[in-house]
Design a protein that fits this description.
The complex is a heterotrimer of chains A (362), B (562) and C (443). Chain A is mainly alpha-helical. Chain A has 16 helices and four strands. In chain A, helix 3 (51-82) packs parallel to helix 9 (200-222), helix 3 (51-82) runs antiparallel to helix 14 (299-324) and helix 10 crosses helix 12. With 562 residues, chain B is mainly alpha-helical. Chain B has two domains: 1-147; 255-546, ABC transporter involved in vitamin B12 uptake, BtuC (Orthogonal Bundle). Chain B has helices spanning 8-35, 37-42, 53-69, 76-100, 112-118, 124-147, 149-167, 169-176, 182-190, 198-225, 228-250, 252-277, 286-300, 312-331, 339-358, 363-366, 388-410, 413-423, 425-430, 435-461, 471-484, 489-505, 513-527, 536-549, and strands at 45-47, 51-52, 379-380, 383-384. A two-stranded antiparallel sheet of chain B has the order 1-2. A two-stranded antiparallel ribbon of chain B has the order 3-4. In chain B, strand 1 and strand 2 (51-52) form a beta hairpin. The longest helix of chain B is centred in the N-terminal third of the chain and has 28 residues, at 8-35. The two termini of chain B are 21 Å apart. In chain C, the strands form five sheets. Chain C has a seven-stranded mixed sheet, with helices on both faces. Chain C has a six-stranded mixed sheet with strand order 5-6-4-7-8-9, sandwiched between helices. Chain C has 443 residues and is an alpha/beta fold. Chain C contains 13 helices and 20 strands. Classes of the chains: A mainly alpha (362), B mainly alpha (562), C alpha/beta (443). At the A-B interface, helix 2, helix 7, helix 13 and helix 15 of A face helix 1, helix 15, helix 19, helix 21 and helix 23 of B.
Chain lengths: 362, 562, 443
Amino acid sequence: MSGAQLARSRPRVTIGRVSPVEIVLWSLRILVLFVVFAGTIGAIVKDRYTAAQWFDFVMFGLTIGAIYAQIALGYTMVYGVLRLINFAHGDIVMCGAFAGYFVASPLDRSGFLTQHPVMGMTAILAVAIVTSTVIALLTERIAYRPFRRVSGSGPLIAAIGVSFFLEQTFRGMFGSSVKSYPEPSWQRSTFGVWGFNVPRIDVLVIGLAIIFMAGLYLIVQRTKMGTAMRAVAEDAEAAALMGIDVDKVVVFTFTLGGAMAGIAGVFYAFVYKQVYFFMGFTPGIKAFGAAVLGGIGSIPGAMVGGVFLGLVESVGPSLFLDGLGIPAPYQLRDLIAFTLLIMVLIFRPNGIFGERMAKQRA
Amino acid sequence: MRRIGIGRTGAWVTWRRTALVGLAFGAGALHLAAVGVLLMLHQRWIVIDTLSLGQATVLLLAAGAGAMAARGDGSRWLQGALGGVCAVLPLALLSRAMDALTLQPIFIALSPDLQAMLTLGLPPAAATPALLALGAVAGLVGAGLRAAPRLSRALLPGAVAVLVAGVFQELIQLMLQQYEGPIGAVRDFVYTWEGLTQEGAITVFLVVTLLAQLFGRATQGRVAAMEPARRRQIWAGIALAVIVVLPAVAGSYIGQVLMLVGLYILMGIGLNLEVGLAGLLDLGFVAFFAVGAYTTALLTADAPNALMHLPYWAAMPVSVLLAVCVGVLFGLPVLGVRGDYLAVATMGLGEIVRVIVLSDFGAPLLGGAQGVLHIPKPQLGSYTLSSPVALFYLTLVAAAIAAFIAWRLENSRLGRAWMALRDDEDVAQALGINLVRSKLLAYGLGAAFAGLAGSIFATMLSSVYPSSFQLLISINVLALIIVGGMGSLPGVILGSVVLIGLPELLREFGEYRYLFYGAVLVVMMRLRPEGLWPSDVRQRELHAGDETAALDAGADLLPARE
Amino acid sequence: MKTPTRSRTPEGMTRSRTPEGMTRSRTLRRILLASTLATTVLAIGRPAPSSAAQTLGPVTDEIGVIRIPKNAPIQIGGMWVLSGPDTALGLDEKRGVELAFKTVGGKLLGHPLKLNAEDDQCNAEGGQTAATKLAANPQTVIVLGPACSSVATPAAPILWQAGIVDIGTACTAPALTAPNRGPQYAGFVRTVFSDSEQGKADATYAREGLKAATVVTVHDGSPYAQQLQQVMADNFTRLGGKVLSQEAVSPNDVDMHPLLTKIASEKPDLIYFPLFTAAAAQVLRQAKETPGLEKTVLLGGGSLASAAFIEAAGPSVVGFRIGYPDVSADAMGKDYPKFVAEYKKAYNEGPISGYHANAYDGAILAMKAIEKVAKTDSAGNLYVGRKALRDAVFEITFDGISGPIACDANGQCAQFKPSVLEFTSADPKTYDLGKNPKKIWPK
């Protein structure tokens, strides 16, 4: 389906006349709501967790959510401008994390990272951002640019190809072993807020993510290039007729997305302390889901979707499933995430923030 | 382009272009070296003690660079040589860098063995000039072949034959090893255990060149005289005949590989109904495959958690039926979801099925991580279909039936409704097409084929494990129908052979399987976005699209038309 | 680039509307008919697969004889996981086999030894294809491997159907050598212990060594981890302990904090998680950061005995314990230290995973069996009877480097001596079974 078609299409299909379909959909909704409520009540009745533990669940969710949000931004911007699902975006995150590792590891060994955390982190982030951006731009130039205006699923397949290629290239160059990110002592410390223990790295990651995302939002809303980007997202052909250099806008979009991916890669590695060639795949898929959740093409949507997904993944198994007495609830974490996604798509086929955008475009 | 080469700056532009072409090939060579492919290829002989696969790769790259760089003019030879030199220059620099620095702690592929390959066993001072000289010679050869197309056309078949005999040697030897007598003698003459013998390589080259000279021209003339549609039919016939005959001749390993190809063809046909005809992008297709496999397993297995112990033939229709039900059930919630959203929604549904199958929550019924074991093989009278070849023919029959049904559907009322749906949902609805019914039928029928594939898969493995039902399967199926050509049945077959069969046959390079897979996907989509064998309708559509899009910048990158 | 035109002509357009089969059918039918005939002829003419009584040269055998021409190599199959995240596991075993071949100079009975190693990807379909390929080669004498039980389950019957014995080198699922394993597994033996032994030993250590009263187990959905934690949990209960819950994660999960917080709310004495490298390292690192787990002991499984795990887990690996067969010098065969020295010399690093010794012993067993049954004719050709080879594998006993090797009637050849190892350093280069991790139990 071409971009123009997609923008035209109305979000809802009128299926009101067919009652069996409606019945199934409603029973599905009721089932999910029942599981949520029964589980929540069960969890409250069981009273297994202390307030501090609930707080921890939320903190963990916010941290991974902030990272999802940053990755989701890359998906959503590229989709907005090119109508392309950049399947390789998760792997660009991996590239950033790897580049950061090769800076962080010697800095940590020499003790620099412990003594000068700000300078050290800046250096790591800078290298990661540059690497991710360069790889994102190369990908765009080699694999995606030829597909401008080609309809169908060809670009998606090319993006999947790029994803495999990047993963395997890194595996071939740096090996398949899992590398451990350094853990300077200042990262491990926690501080207390209202009696809760807050790990410093989580606050750092969430705080910096908010700052970077706010910056990105300002760039897109306020700068000339950002305006051009939004214009291309609305209607590429009209934008081109108005004298906007679409190529430049696309390069700009990939630069922004690549930079966010680099930052997200470093944060991800600092929180979860591992880098290996396949690390980008799962968060990539999840962030993609988050982008859709928020309404793909919408920047605030990506942020909200990411945080929401992170929270549900972290709190959900303990809140809904544990309460129902389901064994090994954390094995079903992806089940919750994807059920949530599908429920959102049933209720709002274009995502939380998506409909507004679609209306604007129509 | 030719006009550029006149002035002084023009000459510089030409030379710069030559160097850039060469360096682009060089970057490719450098990448192969850095990820370890080059060394792996180097450890395989094409011709024993003479030419390794890795050396052949480097020489081919240099020759390719020479051929691409040589652009007519008087300085064609110099351009060819320069192109060749530029193509090996990055490798030469890499070799010097490895002398000066210890890179292996970071880049694990840059080992002393690779260095030994790049220096050709010479001392460093002599190695770099030697490598560059080899590059120049290869570049000259490339330029020469391009300058003399008739000569290169005469030499090409022989060279390709030697290369194929070398690359696929393990496979060919495996096929030949079951024969004694004259075939065994030929094998011993052509092959050692590790590669072609020198005299074998020369013989293969000469024989194939001679045969190509004798028969090639005549056939070529006849083929050229045929109309394209007929040419395609004949190719399809030959390909089909090879698929039908090969397993019976070549034995169980080929049978096993083709059986996997057949399963993917089945799934491809099913997904083709959804994506190719009805335009419903589905990334959760593996779910139906899993349903088919688990249903068969639970209905037939000799395991404690099995529900029944039916014979296979009774379980298969149930599996298909259940897959259809799940397909419709899948379709229901995502009826109103369109385009790329649909891809995500279906991917989510696929993942949900995988997670449930794997979980401890579903384990009492589905076996969890331990899967379901002891699934019997199908019985035909007193004959058990246990060998891969027998099961391959079962798959083939299933695929043939599926292809027939799909072909009939394509031209039916329903098929046309699907196509209308694909082109524009709103218009289709306005035309009185029942969207709900058409969509659900697309999901259900697509799922039926996947369920059938899953059912055969379960009996093939005699066991099912949740780890077999990854997202990767959905991606593979989608990739193969797009690479083959959307909406085209021969395309599905071709796509499966290329994306599933080839990697299985080249298992010895398995470590880099997905590297090549990814590269092939990107290159394919660049060169032929419509797929290897697009359907006629699709072809017309894409090209009709061209005419309106011809003004756009991207249009010149589509394959040129006559 | 010039591409052939496809149905751009008016004829092409009209044809596509009419049923295509009409014009295509004649050519197609002819080709199909010819190919069917050819298939039948060739299928009949093909030599029958070897699993019937056969006499070749000086050897007669119930299920077939392999003839290895003079100077031709003895082809030994191998299948391990050689790609993907568990590569170290399979590669380590492949190296063990290569070193075993080296001890005889790469030659046996005057023929060179050739190892055809296949990648089984550690999953059932990969294993089936690998086994089919090895079985399709009539020169495959015996097969070593696999590392994963989900591979051995479909692979061993395929090999045995072709009359090929399979010596498993790290597949530890109890069912593979259970008394009721079925005749299709008659050709399968293993030089590695069974999970039921390992799980029992780990439970014993938890109850007697650690005096733990409560445990939470975690698995990752792999057959290995799921089985092992189940056996451990059952034995733990039997020994009077209490299993608080049995949790699970996905192998590529990274955020274990919520799971660990849940576990912390149950306040167990011990967390038992026989996971693979990536997920285990995450559990280990994040457990140290989870409030409420300060006093809880962590115990991992044998797949973590590798340098790669130390690299993945970082500093938190120090003090971490895993249940593992006893590899201390007094428990292992006397040649083990020599083997490790050879390994280091050959591959510039110490053993990268935990099952090299089992693979080495498997290869020795295979060579001894071939030596025992192979016969040479006057022309220098070598003949091996398949059934005789199978019987020889079950009969031979010797002192391997992983301990004494002697197969019981169900193909269980290795004996199990339990131990618990503790990591002493976070530097992957110091990995050395016996020193880092070092044996702490039994004392």
